[in-house]
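Rhomboid family intramembrane serine protease structure dump, as promised
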Amino acid sequence: MTSIFDDIRSSFSRGNNALHQLIAINVVVFAVLVILRMIMTMSGSGGLYNYLMTFLSVSSNLDIFVFRPWTLVTYFFTHEQFLHIIFNMLNLYWFGMLVREYLGDKRLVNLYVLGGLVGGLFYLLTYNTIPYLQVRADNSFMMGASGSVIAIMVGAATLLPNYTFNLLLFGPIRIKYIAAVMVLLSISGATGGNAGGNIAHLGGALLGFLYIKQLQRGTDLGRPVQAVLDFFRRLFQRRSPLKVAYKNPNRPFASYSSTSTASTFGAVSNNLTPSDDEIDLILDKISNSGYESLTKEEKQKLFRASQK
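C-alpha cells r here:
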C-alpha cells in the first residue's frame, strides 16, 4: 500500500507527466468514493452519500447548479461505476499518449479541461432548452470524464487521422474511424437513457476538433486554462529562500563571468526554441503525411516545443 502512495506522489513530483497525473486523479477520486460509499451504506447513511455526490456531479437543474458552479469541473474527475472509469481511463491513456507525444503535456491538459467544460455546458444548455430533455432536467445529474476523453480522442484523430491502432478482433484501424464511430454512438444515444452523457460527448468532440484546427492556424484556445493553472502553481509553490550575493571588489572577473554566462545561456536557449510558425508547418505536415514523414530536425523541433 505504501508503494502505491509513493507511485502516486512521484507522478506529481515529476514534470512532463500530465497524462499519468490526470489518470491518478481520476483513480484516487474513484477509490475514495468507493470506500466512502461502502462505509456510509453499511452504517445506514446511504442517503447522505447520495446527497454528497450532488456536490461533485453537475446538475441539469439551474436552480441547483447556480449554487454549485464548481461541479462543472469536479464532474469530469468523478466516477462511480468500475466499467465507466476503466473505459474512460483506457481511452485517455491510448489517445492521450498520442496528444502528449506530438503536442506536449500542456496541450493535453488543455484538451482534457476544455473538453470537460464544453461537454458540461452542452449538457446544461440542452437540458434547459430542448423540450424532450427539459422534462428530465429536475432529477438529472452527470459525472464522468467521457466528455474530456472524447475531446482528446477527436483531437488526436484530427491531428493524426491516419494513425493506426491494432484492435483486438478488428486488426489495424485508423483512429479517424474510431473517433467517427464514437461520435455516431453518442448521437444515437442522445435520446436514450444516458442522454446527458452522450450530449456531453458531442460537446467534447466538437471542442477537440476545433482546438486542433485552431492550433494548426496558430491559436491555442487553451491559454486561459494554462493561465489559471499557473496561478495556482505559483500560489502553492514553495518560495525559495533569499539568496545573499557577496561581491568581492578584488575579483571582478567572477562577478562578470556569472552574468555573462547566464545571458549567453538564455540566448542559446531562445535560439533553440522553434517559433510558432515552424511548429504550425510541422503539424500540417503530420496531418497530411504522418509523423514518419518528418525529418530528424523537425522531430527535434517538435520535441523542444513540447517541453515549453
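Strands lie at 58-59, 141-142, 164-167, 171-174.
lmk if u need the other ones
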